[in-house]
Amino acid sequence: MSKKEKMKNWVLNMIRTVNTHHTGAYAAQAAYFFVLSLIPIFLLLITMVQYTPVTMNDVMELVLPVFPDTVAPLIRSVIVQVYTKSNGFIPFTLLVALWSAGKGVLSVTYGLNCIYDNIETRNYFYLRFRACFYTVLFLIAIMLSLVLSVFGNSLSAVVYEHIPFMSKVMNFIIRIRTCLTLVVLTFFWDLVYKFLPNRSNRGKTTLRKQLPGAFFTASGWLLLSFFFSVYLDIFTGFTSMYGSFTTIILIMLWLYGCMYIILLGGEINAILEGLGITKRLTKGLTKEKRMLK
Predict the structure, then answer these.
(1) How far is residue 259 CA from its own chain's centroid?
(2) Hey, how many other C-beta atoms are within 10 angstroms of the C-beta on 43?
(3) N or C, which end of the chain is more exposed by having fewer CB within 10 Å?
(4) Could you give the CA distance from residue 144 to residue 154 in angstroms, rounded to a whole number?
(5) 3-state SS class at 165
């Protein structure tokens, strides 16, 4: 069999495996719950910002340009209400945000369990607690990728305008943002692939073995964010198609792509681990045959 045929068979086998594991369904489910958590997280951040020297007008100047003009009055009224009536608001908002985003983390967990052929035996409440912890890590990874890769140019323009003495630092960060984000995300996904699924052989699963999938996921996130950044800078067709929902639709598509890439990274690790097991079994059988001879 030629190398082309082997590669073709490997790709077809990969596609069949991905379809069998319902990767798209798990990715869509995770993206939905992460989008659902954006509003309470947004409200939580605004609520916490009011305890800093930042004024309500500063928040409006920073936040309103991100959203479409049609929803600007709604966002403005929400900010005013949060600044004036926020007693007891933080605990409730935090619980809603963690519950919504935690469901997204659970979807990724179930997807990875399916990919690695693991059965979930852990307690539901324990899983929910872990999901809250991983939610915070997920949001940090998402915000880092989004801010540096998608909104990096826009962020640098804001820094040049409002904090000119930080322009050199911002230039340096923009220059190394790809390498910096790649290293951080690779390390993060390495930990996720080792500890998030319910692995029966976790002791034998090293971080080094998870590096291929982790590097693929980190690179995939950066490439996806780059293409979205180019699309946002050049094309405006989405605005005329979806109107005031453009921002939410774009975030949903971006998150769906990110979740899909996470699960594909798990597929790569599972396939490589399977190949390693097959090689070890083959070597063991060969040794036994030699000993019998």
Answers:
(1) 6
(2) 22
(3) C
(4) 14
(5) helix
Distant-in-sequence, close-in-space partners of 64: CB < 8 Å, separation ≥ 6: 72, 75, 76
User: What's the confidence (pLDDT) of residue 7?
Assistant: 77
Distances, alpha carbon 246 to alpha carbons 66, 90, 232, in Å? 11, 28, 11
Q: What is the pLDDT of residues 194-225, one digit of tens each?
A: 888 888 776 677 888 899 999 999 999 888 87
- Please report, to the nearest 10 degrees, the dihedral formed by the alpha carbons of residues 240, 246, 247, 251 taken in order: -130
Report helix, strand or coil for 145: helix
Tokens of 21: 């594991």
Q: What is the mean pLDDT of the chain?
A: 75
Q: What angle do CA 241, 250, 162 make, to 5 degrees?
A: 110
Share of the chain above pLDDT 70, in %: 65
DSSP state of 267: H
CA distance 285 to 158: 64
Contact 214, 186 (CB under 8 A): yes
Q: What is the largest CA-CA distance in the chain?
A: 85
> How many Å apart are CA 190 and CA 141, to the nearest integer?
13
Q: Give the domain ranges of the chain.
A: 3-285
